[in-house]
Amino acid sequence: MNDLQAYLIDEFIEEYEDGALSRADLEHRVRGMVGEAQAALLLSSVAERGGSTRPRVAAIRPIIGGAELESMDVQIALGQGELQGYLARPTEYGSFPAIVAIHENRGLVEHTKDCARRLASEGYIVLAPDLLSRQGGTGAFADTNDAIAALGQSDPEQNARDLVAAIDWLTNQPDVDGGRMGVTGWCMGGCYTWRVATLAGTRIRAAVPWYGPAPQSGVENIAAPVFAIYGELDERINAGIDKITQEMSAAGKSFEKKIYPGAQHAFNNDTNAERYNAEQAPVAWNDMLAFFKQHLGS
Predict the structure, then answer these.
(1) Suppose 26 and one of 16, 149, 184, 236 were both cysteines; which one would form an S-S bond, judging by CB atoms 3.0 to 4.6 Å apart?
(2) Are residue 22 and residue 137 in the same domain, yes or no?
(3) How far, CA to CA in Å, does 19 sit from each of 39, 49, 92, 150?
(4) Using one digit for the tens of pLDDT, what is the confidence trace for 144-179?
(5) Cβ-contact 64, 113 below 8 angstroms
(6) Domain containing 8: what range?
């Protein structure tokens, strides 16, 4: 089991213990990721939770970008195969900074596309890659649990290299100012934002990981300023804050972080009624925009 699989399984167990995930869905995801025998071992110490899963209700969605934008599905040629993605951009022509936006562990869903449009409405050309492309794309999975399991089975190092390839592709697109490139991502995508920062070097000028675990190695290779976003109640991810702060300082890297009060893991996802924080999500979003404006312009 690699470090990304361990992170995802811990997240599923946390969701289950919080009442946001049924036992059947928990077992489905873990079995699909690591197989029957290892799943049974990993879940043997997870106690049955009494009662039913909390009912999901429609969450408020206060910020939906889209005015004067155009969007399209794109295909990016790789050494073997292709990377699917979603591109959102202002309709006018010019020279724009650009951002790669990396999805959560459910794949390239509508929420991530909405985030891409929201960023594009601020004057960025935004690419949201689909890390399930090598398995046919997120749309190939009828069951979200199967998409999640497939992401857990994928090679994290290959995914990180694919994301760097996506940055190179975006850099060379019409109207993109390749000297003003940023990257951001949420949850699992926050993890990959860190990983990309260790690989991309001077290709990127700013990185904003949202509640993603820091990289296990490669901090010395980070060239871009990093602004890390955390939720106060996200104890699992926050346990690594001191370590990455010390590592970034020791390596002489530009690092800012902010912990948002009363916010849980995934607090920006306005389609997740259990985790979305209507007060802090817009604050964190605007802080991200300010960081990108400082380092990329708009």
Answers:
(1) 16
(2) no
(3) 20, 8, 46, 23
(4) 999 999 999 999 999 999 999 999 999 999 999 999
(5) no
(6) 3-43
